[in-house]
Amino acid sequence: MEEKTQTVTIEQQKKITMTSVESVDSFSTQQITLTVEGGRAVITGDALKIVNFSKTNGNFAAEGKISGLKYLGKRDKLAKRLFR
After folding, report:
1. What is the extent of the structural domain holding 76?
2. Nearest alpha-carbon partner for 23 in 45, 51, 53, 48
3. Distance CA 81, CA 61 (A)
């Protein structure tokens, strides 16, 4: 399976846009957790709000005071972790 090219743009720590986003897993004004191609991403900050998300094309945008972006590995299913 070929991985898509992913782009991330942060503009003056006030706006973040991403491509290849598969789903929004959780969100609050301090943290947004996303499933992206190849893993997960966590955006942290203050007064965060999602302004655009398209599941069909994978485009995502949020605004607020962005203080961090962290990539995490893909989460394995519980059964897969138990029976390795």
Report:
1. 8-82
2. 53
3. 32
What is the number of alpha carbons within 13 Å of residue 3 lying toward its C-beta?
Answer: 8
CA 35 to chain CA mean position, Å: 6
Question: Would you say residue 2 lies in a domain?
Answer: no
Tell me the per-residue pLDDT of 29-73, one tens digit each, with 9 for 90 and over.
999 999 998 889 999 999 999 999 999 999 999 999 999 999 987
Closest to 7 (Cα-Cα) out of 78, 63, 69: 69
pTM recorded for the entire structure: 0.82
Amino acid code (one letter) for 24: V
Q: Residue 33 is which amino acid?
A: T
* 8 A C-beta contact, residue 18 and residue 42: no
Q: What is the CATH number of the domain that holds 70?
A: 2.60.40.2000
